Amino acid sequence: MLLAVLSGFLLALVAPALHRVTGRYIGWTLAILPASLTAYFASLIPAVQASGSLVIEYAWMPGLGINLNFLVDGLSLVFALLISGIGTFILIYAGAYLAGHQYLARFFVIMLSFMASMLGLVLSDNLVSLFVFWELTSITSYMLIGFNHEDMEARKCALQGLFVTAGGGLVLMAGLILLAIMGGSYSLAEILSSDLALQDHAFYTGAVICILAGCFTKSAQVPFHFWLPNAMAAPTPVSAFLHSATMVKAGIYLMARLNPSLGEGALWSQALMVFGAATMFTGAYLAFSSTGIKKVLAYSTIMALGTLTMLIGVGTELALTAFVCFLVAHSLYKGALFMIAGALDHETGTKDISRMGGLRKTMPVTAAIACLAALSLAGLPPVFGFIAKELLLESLLDAPFWSIGLTTAAVAAAVLIVGVAGLVAIKPFFGKVANTPKAPHEAPFGMLIGPAVLSVIALIFGLAPFLPEGALLQSAVGSVFGTPVETYLALWHGVNVPLVLSIGSLVLGLSLLSGWHRLQPALYAINTYAARFGPEAGYFHFMEGITIVAAWQTRILQNGVLGLYLLLLVAVTFGLTGYTLLTHHGIHLTLDLTDSHFYEWGIALLLVAAATFASSTHSRLGSVASMGVLGFGVALTFILFSAPDLGITQLLVETLTVILLVLVLFRLPEFVNLSSPFERFRDLAVAIFAGVVMTLLILAALDVQYFESISSYYIENSGTLGHGRNIVNVILVDFRALDTLGEIFVLSLAALGVLSMIKLRAEDQYKS
Amino acid sequence: MKSNTLILHTAALFIMPLQLMFSVFLLFRGHDEPGGGFIGGLVAASAFVLYAFAFGSEPTRRILRVAPRDLLAAGLLFAIASTVPAFLAGQPMLTAHWWEVPLPGGNYLKLSTPLIFDIGVYAAVLGTIMTFVINLMESDE
């Protein structure tokens, strides 16, 4: 299982080398991995059917409660199968779509990393590792949206997507921590199986708001939906995979995953229903009013995401059955339609639907596949989308409250979506032949196999719904509901209310479609007007606001006067420390000087003299040198009190610091006294204050021992456990190696910071 | 920046190899005696700094062979790599692993993940300081 999740990252490492070997068959070669993963996940189905869920454990940082545990149940397996299954075809498709692209290898590196992160996300049992994978999907998505990085627009859209999803991710982290505190564990399996009534916990409201903020941003719910259409700046294989079938469903996944624990509260279900329904309707409307084929599909994805959110909110057994069916159906048809859209774009040279027409003669296979996928989108028999839509309407009619409102919204959305299905399947392929920028011809095999297989699967699932139901869907519904359920899926339910509503929406949708050309200018005008007040405008205002605040606080706090930085740092740190010291400990001066030696006094005097000289001299070189003396004095102290490692380190660091300072010194202007006497006295006061607090702190540390000292443990065990006699080193590289690891990362970051500062300054000078 | 004194040139050529050898010595004995990756890295850095003072930054880059920031990255990679054996064995991150390789003559060579980790620290420290020094010197020229 560990290998299954991480194999994507491993393959990503060698993808560029593979590309050199396999050349144009790179897509097919790489697709072997997700294909075998699909087979592996499918082989887990019997085990999940038998036991409900499996937890597979790998210890990672058990001390912090962070383990790499995997939870496999119906829900995560459905997601894992969708990711690896659709991923297989996306990789093949991308190999054809981007054939000959100069950064093809780079594309596959990011794409495979994304796939692995996504698998990690849906299979993680630990909330922390789930969050790590969650953020990884945001970052890889950022790189994929901005894949055409020479295009300014693509970079802007990528950044927008990153800001929205990563901002939500931060809030989500707070929510997950609250959840872990409430549930008493970081393990999803334990939280889900505990019988705590989380909705009565004091943190419940906070946790739900934070978690939903994370899920809503990721899954493009109103009012955060605007980033998704902009993410269409990505190459089409990316849109097909990330922004329809997988990544945007991460939020949906998390909501479904937590539904058994959090779903009891009214806040949860009401928020999901309101935001879900609003998103569903907004998405359907915007989809119908767009002209770019990818935008149309993106907005219809928003509609689907809204529908899924709403269904979790309704939360009845029937609604969750509809949720799982709709999820599978949507992933199948949306992945297919995006790939078709890419093929159209690739072969005709335009993304604008109004410029396409009559393509069925030149692209017959594409047309057939598009029609089959669009049937599923519109929710027509005999494909799986029909079953999902019937279930959706039925469950809304049955909803415990707000049934009429939700049903109306769903039917309105359905009408628009029928229109949208027509837009993508009828408009480009039928009617008058339109002049396209490129002479169209059939798309290559690699670009057709994916959508063809996905559409045919949707057809098979529609004709024989008991196949997926028995295998997996039933246990998936069970994991969202919290207890095992019995479902019954069938294509034909007889004439009932949902069917009547479906037929009605079909008729209305088709008539809307026929008037599309006439409606288009009016819709365009409305949308342009609405955009000025819409959430995207809010996003831009927000970003401007951040810039203004940042500029303001930089002027106040970071105005380039280094003395001020130091003053603030020292004053705040020692002010707070001094306060804590006074209130918690008080001042006890017990200074015993009886067993001090004369050479210790000598070093102390040397230190004081060096410090005084360094702060009063007018010569920079003298100041640096006396700082060096100070440092060597400290090193001497270390050596006197038998800490040779510290002493050596201090000596070396001092030497190198003096050298570095001398290097910088040459670049400073002549020494001038810029500060007023008042400022100098203020600085002196702060410095003395810091010195006094530090002295008191050290005396206090000698005075009291709040905990039993750990040094005896190190002394006893460094030889036996650490195989070393130098305790300092054993602590550094073994006992507390994690600290050291953190430290060398900080060190490296500092080096990179200095490097970029020097380089940027050099470039500035070069320009001016 | 480059000095033209014959004494410094000659001294640097003699002292630098000694310093480098000493730094490696410090690195390897660090587990039992005073020393270790951090101190070793600092000594190695002072060796190259001496060289840079004598001959300038460009020859120092040449004698380093790799860019200082690649050295940094290599250090971090080594440190991370030392976590892999524990990970593969399903143990907590950074659990130490020890191997004793028998040498001819009845001695043993002690190899361990803490040693790999320490090599990482050595390279990271060396890389950091050389990044500072070389770039500061070059921004002058």
UniProtKB/TrEMBL annotation, chain A:
GO biological process, one term: monoatomic ion transport
Domain NADH-Ubiquinone oxidoreductase (complex I) chain 5 N-terminal: start-end pairs: 61-108
Location(s) in or outside the cell: Cell membrane; Membrane
Annotated ranges, domain NADH:quinone oxidoreductase/Mrp antiporter transmembrane: 124-407
Segments forming domain MrpA C-terminal/MbhE: 680-759
Domain (MrpA C-terminal/MbhD) ranges: 605-670
GO CC terms, sorted: plasma membrane
Entry keywords, A to Z: Antiport, Cell membrane, Ion transport, Membrane, Transmembrane, Transmembrane helix, Transport
GO molecular function terms attached to this record: antiporter activity
Tagged with keyword Iron-sulfur: no
Source superkingdom: Bacteria
Membrane topology reported for the UniProt record: Multi-pass membrane protein
NCBIfam families named in the record: PRK12647.1
PANTHER family membership: NA(+)/H(+) ANTIPORTER SUBUNIT, NA(+)_H(+) ANTIPORTER SUBUNIT A
Protein name (record): Putative monovalent cation/H+ antiporter subunit A
Species annotation: Marinobacter vulgaris
TrEMBL record, chain B:
Membrane topology, record value: Multi-pass membrane protein
Residues annotated as transmembrane: 7-28, 34-55, 76-99, 119-137
Keywords: Cell membrane, Membrane, Transmembrane, Transmembrane helix
Domain Na+/H+ antiporter MnhB subunit-related protein positions: 7-131
A GO CC term attached to the entry: plasma membrane
Tagged with keyword Protease: no
Pfam families (UniProt xref): MnhB
Main localization of the protein described in the UniProt heading: membrane
Membrane recorded as keyword: yes
Subcellular localization: Cell membrane
Domain of life: Bacteria
Family under the similarity heading: Belongs to the CPA3 antiporters (TC 2.A.63) subunit B family.
Name under which the protein is recorded: Na+/H+ antiporter subunit B
Provenance organism: Marinobacter vulgaris
Taxonomic lineage: Bacteria, Pseudomonadati, Pseudomonadota, Gammaproteobacteria, Pseudomonadales
